[in-house]
Prior knowledge:
The chain is an alpha/beta fold. The model has no long low-confidence stretch (mean pLDDT 94). The protein has helices at residues 68-92, 102-107, 109-118, 140-158, 176-182, 218-224, 229-246, 269-280, 290-300, and strands at 6-7, 27-35, 97-100, 121-124, 164-165, 187-188, 198-202, 207-209, 252-258, 285-286. The strands form two sheets. The protein has a five-stranded mixed beta sheet. Helix 7 packs parallel to helix 8 (269-280). Helix content is 37%, strand content 13%. The longest helix is centred in the first third of the chain and has 25 residues, at 68-92. 41% of the residues are buried. Helix 1 (68-92) links the parallel strand 2 (27-35) and strand 3 (97-100). The protein has a single domain, classed as Glycoside hydrolase/deacetylase (TIM Barrel, Alpha-Beta Barrel), CATH 3.20.20.370.
Amino acid sequence: MSQPPSSYDFVPLPDRAPLKFPGGAHVALIFTINIEYWEPFRPGQKEPLFPGGPATIPHALPGDVLDTANWTWREYGQRVGIWRLMDVFDAMGIAPSCTCNGMIMIERRRIIDAVKDRGWELVPHNWAQNDLLTNYAHSPEQERAVIRRTLDTYEQTVGKPAKAWLSSAIRGTAHTPAFLKEFGLIAYCDYLNDDQPYLIDTVHGPIVCVPYSNDINDFNMFARGGLSTRDGVDMLKLCFDQLHAEGAATGRIMNVGLHPHVIGQPHRIAALREFIEYVKGKSNVWFPTREQIATWYLAQVPRHVRHSS
């Protein structure tokens, strides 16, 4: 049997050595702002464009027809919501990690420049939000070309090579980690299966998984789940408190996924502000970039160590 392009060991939490984050941190807390660009339409495409979540108007239109309501609902995040988030993070002195599609770097350069000016981490997020890597699951060279195009645009725009990757809609393929490792990246962030980093083996060598969360995510909390702003704050605090308590023994990652057109709405921004105020009042919290987590993990813990039997 040929070697799979990527794989990882199943190592349940009790079988791992304790993970001690820098400075004795219990929680590595990442705020992820997903800065995304949806194609308005695709000429000749009759099936709907991938929606990426519940639509603000539910009736799906053909992919070659501009869906004015849903496209402009998302664009609210670019015109207004992202700037509201920047105001909050600026005031709180916390630097989030921002994902960005290749197209947003071209079509909405003003946003990317504002992120660069703040020194926040930028993580490539596929070429277009609606063009999933899984569309090329059986055409790996086409997937490789999409990744390469995105990374080239990233380097031209940001001024340095990318080190981490999050696929749009967290839809990577079995080949994605291997392509990223081939292109020099050290962190892959699509997997939802852990609260700690771990190594993914690829045909080009290991890459660090820095897990994402689709539960602690404003889309699932508010747009899909229908939580109130008050309930959203409570959910974030409960998650943080549990991970912080567990992290005293072995460190945990908490990723808070944010979308400017969701959390950036005026009636929801208070949830983010209150939660940041809450965690800033706690000790033993690390606010790393994904690159920092992966770099630290590669240097300190090349592979999760199993306890001796």
